[in-house]
Amino acid sequence: MSLKEQSLSLKEAQKLVLLSQRLPSTKRIGSAQNATLSAIEHLGYIQIDTISVIERAHHHTLYNRNPNYKADHLSALVADKKVFEYWSHAAAFLPMTEYRFSLPRKTAIASGKQKHWFKRDEKLMKAVVERIKHEGPLMAKDFDKKGKKHGEWKTAPTKQALENLFMQGDLMITKRINFHKVYDLTERVLPSDINTVMPTEDEYGRFMVKKYLQTNGLGTLPEITYLLKNVKPLVTNALDTMLNTGEIELVNVSNTAYYVLPEALELLNQPLARKKLKILSPFDNLLIQRKRMTDLFNFDYTLECYVPQHKRKHGYFTLPILWDGKLVARMDSKADRKEKVLHIHQLTLEPSLRKTEAFADALGKELQSFMEFNVCNSIQLHRTIPSSFKFEFEHRFLN
Q1: pLDDT single digits (tens) 217-242
Q2: Which backbone phi and psi does 354 adopt, to 5 degrees?
Q3: Could you give the 3-state DSSP secondary structure of residue 217?
Q4: Other CB atoms within 10 A of residue 275 CB
Q5: What's the domain range around 222?
Q6: Residue 337, CA atoms < 13 Å, CB-side half-sphere
Q7: Quick one: which of 102, 152, 204, 378 has the fewest CB in 10 Å?
Q8: Which phi and psi angles does 85 have, rounded to 5°?
Q9: CATH at 314
Q10: For residue 116, what pLDDT is reported?
Q11: pLDDT score, position 108
């Protein structure tokens, strides 16, 4: 298929991406917990993060796909063996239905073909497995209550052994207690009917292509293989094969060639809930590839908690805001859980945002829900850019 045969406008590409990401969320049939499972199975992963200035990223991302989301959904789904923890491009919750596609990485790590960041101590790893085998599920602190931490990662030796065993597939995480991982033997965690057949290289390549395009609408080779090790040849072969068979097509967006599933283009016939506003996590599946957001949404975003304070422009933990099909603002926030106050330290509007009154209405509605999601009962808005918006917003909602 020639690039000249089909092209999408930037607005069409943005719509396709958002509908594929299920943003903004729409009503789903079934229980709230099943809606959470549906979101995880559709997206393929939910990134886990430890930062908790507002509700943690994995909860935040799911809340934006399921308005009825509750924080205990994840632990319940793990306990029901519908979801498991492993590695995507980062630590993540993954759907159990796709367990077998975690096996190539696990096998590569176990065989030494792919390096993990912790050094292997085979004797200690064997001892850890034996102890869990006889005592049942254990946490890292059950081993090294007074153990010395060492090495580049300043991590206790048995914690390193646990993580190596987890990454190579011998252990799984059966639950978390106060965010601490509880490890058990994989054979005791996996459902009895789960498919554990190693995918062929062709299957694995096709899976990565199809999953990415289903959940992201369109993509390039670098985007599909983002932060994934040793998969570029498999994905390249899959793209070539699927393009030749018509399973995927190429479209032109702003003079860039993107791969797309033909059936995904039908999404463009569906409406996008442009009036709905969503406050996104920095680790949301939509946002995780910053260059992609610049290319497709003209949104230059940096998470500044990793930037020295004197160099921050927008704030420590800035949340991108989606509205009218675009990324139109960013909000540096912190939930004071003791005082139950959601602080908005700085709200920065993008220069391209013109309909500020309509935006203020949408933001006010969503902030009420977002405040409750963060277990707060009031909001303090400290600063806006431009400063005139602070008066406009407070006059409408905070008086």
Answers
A1: 999 999 999 999 899 999 999 999 99
A2: -110, -40
A3: coil
A4: 12
A5: 1-116+196-270
A6: 7
A7: 152
A8: -95, 135
A9: 3.40.630
A10: 80
A11: 94
